[in-house]
Amino acid sequence: MPIYLDHNAGAPLRAEAAAAISRLLQDAAGNPSSVHRAGQRSRRMLEAARAQVATIVGAEPRRIVFTSGGTESNNLAIFGAITAASRRRKIISSEIEHSSILAPLAELERRGFDVVRVAPDSDGRIDPARVLAALDSETALVTLGLANSEVGTIQDLAPLASACSEKGALFHVDAAQAVARIPVDVATLGCDLMTLSGHKLGAPAGIGALYVRDSARVAPIVFGGPHESGMRAGTPNLLGAVAFGAGAEAAMNSMREESDRIGSLAASLLTRLRDAIPGLRLNGPTVGRLPNTLNLTFPGVLGESMLIALDLEGVEVSMGSACAAGAVEPSHVLRAMGRSVADARSSLRISLGWNNTADEIDAVAAIIPAVWRRVADAEPLAEDAR
After folding, report:
1. Which of 19-33, 292-306, 335-349 has the lowest mean pLDDT?
2. What is the pTM of this model?
3. Is 323 a catalytic residue?
4. Where residue 374 sits, what CATH number does that domain have?
5. What angle do CA 132, 134, 135 make, to 5 degrees?
């Protein structure tokens, strides 16, 4: 069996989510907007799922809007906030955001909006003071990720909420990678908007949510019926929502135990790889990083070659964000952190999750150094690529 170590791209389906899907399929539920019994039964299931998802971030259920995933949630937050704030033309973000934030911001920039992208430090941290320095009365939105998908850096975002409120700007947090891995609470962060994604925590892909604070003015970007409190038209993905709710509840119930266990496995793997591979470099901070995430620069090899060779050995990792997996350019996150093009191209992301075992990590700790030595010996062109 392959050893799957790409949980930041998408976690395997949890048993609780699979069971929820099976029950719903057997129940043959109706449209949640219908008034007959089947429809009302479906409505109750949808609202129960909404409550489950709300609980993992300390939100009121009615403030959760179901979407098709993290990308749609980020787009709704960004375009919805900008549309509602019709006279404001400035957005503040960072250079290391997910493509589902970077791409909407690039589109708004093409339309004439002023987009400020704050640079990180060498560990991928965004200095809140730099965000605050850019904040003014023209700012419509501040949009930042709570935890970086590639290097796992956890951002200190709590100082931003009150300043955004004072300036009349909305504060959006992309928490897709953070939720169910570290404690996340909308009240503690003070955010107006928060993105959640089902498949990062063990629900299926194709379902996500956006938390919308009751005072936040956000315009819909999909039009049709009055679904999701008028925020997102279209018949809800009941199957996805029910599975998201079940997966979220399971993840929440086991988060502390899982986080400790996974963090211990990741730390052990890092120590063993450092002992076996001279010059191996961790990208991201030692402290203040998602416990499951290791972004590593392997000396003397190309990341693509390592990835393919590991896949042939049954170890599944990535070179960064899954949405950028086909890109020719090196990781924009690592480049923004000051890494060279060569180092960025020699880096891999290893992200553990709920179903990884100690035996798997023992196996990987032996496989990765052996593969690195083989690839380094066979790939003298790696130095030329630098």
Report:
1. 19-33
2. 0.94
3. yes
4. 3.90.1150.10
5. 65
